Automatic annotation (TrEMBL):
Protein name: CxC2-like cysteine cluster KDZ transposase-associated domain-containing protein
InterPro entries reported for this sequence: CxC2_KDZ-assoc, KDZ
Disordered: annotated span: 1-24
Domain spans labelled CxC2-like cysteine cluster KDZ transposase-associated: 99-197
Domain of life: Eukaryota
Bias type Pro residues, positions: 8-18
Signal peptide annotation: none
Organism encoding this protein: Mycena alexandri
Amino acid sequence: VPVESLPPQEPENSPPVDPEPETPMTQTAKLMAEYMAKFPDILRLWVAHKSGAGVGTPCYCGNGVRSTRCRDCCQYELSYEFFVKHDISLVDSGGHLPTLGHYGRPCPNIGNSVMMTIVEPNGVHATKLFFCGCAENPSVDSRFDQLMEAGFFPGSVDSPRTGFSFEIMRRFHLASLESKTAALDFMSCLRRLTDNATTAKVPVSTVSRASNTSVDTEPIFHRHVLQQQSTLDGNFHTSHFAKNCDPHDVSLFNGKAHFPPDVQYCTYLKSIPLSTEVEFQKSTCKYLKAVNRQDKKKFKFQDVNGTINGQCSHVFVVASVDMHHSERFANADAALARMLRKMVATNNQDIQFRLAFENIDQVVTYEIACAYYVKIKARFRESPDLADVADI
C-alpha cells in the first residue's frame, strides 16, 4: 500500500484540544435577555393596566363610587400660577409625593423617595416617587411591576430609574411606522417641549365586510370566485450584508408570525445539498433565469440574498424565509410548507388562519412553477421537515 494513501496517525499521548472560548454577551444582548425573561410579567401587567382595577370601588374621598379612570396621567399636577406647572415632589417634600401601588392613593407604608426620570408626551421630567411598601402587595419587592401597574415601562429590569409612559411608547411606535422617526430625534423633540399640544382626534367610521367561506361552496357554484389564491415570490431587494453581528442576539419573534425559527430553518437547509437531483433541477426554458442560476455566488459579501414570501393575491404575507444561495427550491419549499401549516392549522401555531381549506379551491402560483412543481411531492415526502404537509 502506498504510504501516501495511509491516513495520518495522531500520537497516543497528544494533549486535548481546548474548545474555542465562547464570545461574551454584549450589554445589549444581556439587557434583551433580561427583558425576555420578564416577558410573561410584562404582558400580564400591560393588559392589566388597560382594565382599570379601581373602577367600581369606593372613591378615596368617600363621596361615591369611582366610575371613570383618567388614562392620560396617574397623578394630578399642582399649579400655583396661571399656566405654570410645578412638580409637587420638588416644591413640597412634606409627604406630598406621588406613590405607586394604590392607584393614586397614598401608601401607608412608604419608605424613602426615589428620584426618577419620567418620559411623558409633554417632555422629560425628573421627579420623586414613593414605591409601595405594604406586605400584602404582591409587587412590594419589584419596582418593575409597580411602574408597569402605574403605566410606565421601566428603562431597566433591576432597580429602574427611568420610566416611559405607555402613551409615549404608542406615539413613538406610530411616528416610527409613518415617518421613520429615529429614537434620538423623537427624544430631542420631547426635550424641547414645554407643554403637551396635540391635534384633535378625527372620528372615523369604518365599515368592513365579513367573509364567510362556508357559504355556497358547492363544487358547481362559482368555484373560481371562491378560490384561495396564493403565490410564492422571491424578493432580492431584502438582502443583508455580512457584518460582525452579535452572535447572542435575542430574537423577539422566535418563530412567531410569518418568520420560521432561524436555528430550525438553517438546520433544515443544511440537510439538503445544493446540487441533489431532487432539490436542484435545471430548466430547458431560457426565460427561467431564477432556476438556471441557482447556487451562483453572485451576491458577494451578503449572508442573506433576499427573501421568499408566501402570500395571498392581496399581498397578505403568510410566510417569509431567507435566501442564502440565491433562489433555491429548498427555500420555496420551506415558505410553502409554513404557509400551508398556517392555513390548515396542522400545528399549534401562535397565529392560525382558519379557513374552510377543503371546501374551496387552492391555487398556488410561482413564476418558475413549470420547473418547481416537477418533483415537489418527492421533495416534501423525503424531507422530515416537510413530510407533514406533503399530501395536502
